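Researcher: Let's try something more involved. This one mixes different molecule types, so please make sure each is placed in the same coordinate frame as the others.
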Amino acid sequence: METASKDLIIEKTANSKIAQVDFDNLPFGKVYSDHMLVCEYKNGAWQTPKIQPFGPLSLDPTAKVFHYGQSIFEGMKAYKDENGKVFLFRPEENYKRFNISSERLAMPAVPEEVFMNGLNELLKLDSDWIPTTPGSSMYIRPFGFASGSGLHASPADEYTFAIVLAPSGSYFAGKVKVKIEERYSRSANGGVGFAKAGGNYAGQFYPTQLAVDEGYQQVIWTDDTSHEYIEEAGAMNVFVRINDTLLTCPTSDRILDGITRKSILDIAKAEGIATEVRKISVKEIIEAAENGSLKEMFGAGTAAVVSPINAFGFRGTDYDLPELNDSYANRLKKRMTDIQYNKSEDPFGWRVEVK
Amino acid sequence: METASKDLIIEKTANSKIAQVDFDNLPFGKVYSDHMLVCEYKNGAWQTPKIQPFGPLSLDPTAKVFHYGQSIFEGMKAYKDENGKVFLFRPEENYKRFNISSERLAMPAVPEEVFMNGLNELLKLDSDWIPTTPGSSMYIRPFGFASGSGLHASPADEYTFAIVLAPSGSYFAGKVKVKIEERYSRSANGGVGFAKAGGNYAGQFYPTQLAVDEGYQQVIWTDDTSHEYIEEAGAMNVFVRINDTLLTCPTSDRILDGITRKSILDIAKAEGIATEVRKISVKEIIEAAENGSLKEMFGAGTAAVVSPINAFGFRGTDYDLPELNDSYANRLKKRMTDIQYNKSEDPFGWRVEVK
Ligand SMILES: Cc1ncc(COP(=O)(O)O)c(C=O)c1O
Ligand SMILES: Cc1ncc(COP(=O)(O)O)c(C=O)c1O
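Model: All components are placed in one shared frame. Result:
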């Protein structure tokens, strides 16, 4: 059945897969809902977006996404409250960042209507797929890539924007042990580290695998010039608590301007927690670990929410972090997720209802 | 018609497109031959490779190549001599580098048999497509990407290796005017710059476009830490001639170990040209331009062969290079292409006949 409302075509599936899904045991990002949004950019213009059954895409083997990594994405979540209402968290920020990424990757900006209205309609159509088990949510993946063909190393002339939905459980199983990395780097000065460009992630897999082989779950990236300052943790920004001050490093062209990061900073300030945004050296973390002033480290990102780090490794030595009863990580995570799941007031005006 | 010989399945096209091609006016990398090689990696093993009609690939929208840039490639050429014999140039080097790239991108190594035998059979099948117009050749694009699905930022469990063929004319139309870049960078220390990873190229498009808007064709990348040393030019390594010495910078984890680069170095040595492999500062190039000792600059790579640079821009000032009658660029290019097209002896043993 195909219906066209305003500037969106909707083709519904005849075979919902929802009955096959075990919503109590959802993995992260492996189960997909019945529909997806697809919109193509051709002849210099975005075509009419279409919601259609989730299914394969057909591409020329010479599509530039295969050869030149022209691809970007966003990561968002939809949350369902006890009454079945559905909410997004600061979706405008994801939309803005998507187009910051697209500019750096020489891709055409996606119109707000295509992104926002498309997402809204897609979520309404597949709202039964939004899980309600505690800790689970609907992971939303807007992405764009070069579908135009050609082996000349230059931008493509055709692009595809799409959104898929994955009802998901938590990203990490438990607490995370990280390795502070000094050999490999995530991004260059003047590079694309601040963008959610596909290539930034592929480059992390091998060093992360080496860390996993050594018994860690994740790498803490340091700056590629001196390796003296911590920057990010995989797909998370990083926070450090020394005594009672919460620290995170400033964003730069090497670091993603995370929405969770800035939300956590705002919540911390509202909670009366002292915060500092400044460069954080590995040396100072080690010293703090040794003199007992290092209280917490955690990662923050949409997929992994707030992920407490229970130990870090540096040059072969592991440093354990204390177990706190009243950690900032837990307190800030609770404040943030209460806003996300509509369990509390939203003093910041971050929640946006899907309706 | 489908035939299986040894470990290769061959399915020939019923509709050759060759009659539609104007072989005297070939663009670069836009016309593709009738067939392609495809080989899939599944359940921990490479499956039987298949030569099949060139045509679209079908992929899950959640295939990791779209999201995490797990993709690599090679660039090679096949040359046809006056008697119709077909040659590759140092193909073992491309095969080795492909797997150096695949390791860094956490992808499974492609077996030599799949790569080499597959390429050989594909070239034999589509040998009528190899152009003979001067300056043209068959551009060969082996590539590999993550076809396995999932939104978790970790390596895929399925991959596709493929080879497509593009009968091609020259990459650049004429001499090249370049801009020495100080703001944007191509690669990080400890990053993936030495690999032919897709993401390295997408990151260059936007800064290159800015340079094109200022009247240049290409960017000369400098190191991302100090921007004091030149490193590469788009998809080419860079050579500088000061007085009668030919300079090129050493390879590193930021720089691709180009096969043309090392071939040019070997040919130059055999020609009795003084060569130096060492860091080259922007300062020294400017000084040499100003005192007249800067004789030549050129890029070197499979696609663009040897591309003389006729001017470079730095901080808004353009510096012209002299027109030489007997340039190293022309001499070295002729020696190399004579070997490639079987017009001369091959003292280095670089030519490999396709038969
Ligand atoms: C590299 C990187 N850093 C940090 C983050 C966190 O950003 P956000 O909080 O907006 O999800 C992400 C994405 O999730 C990321 O990919
Ligand atoms: C970044 C980069 N540098 C240099 C080169 C030249 O390498 P080769 O001579 O092996 O083609 C290439 C590829 O062509 C490249 O992509």
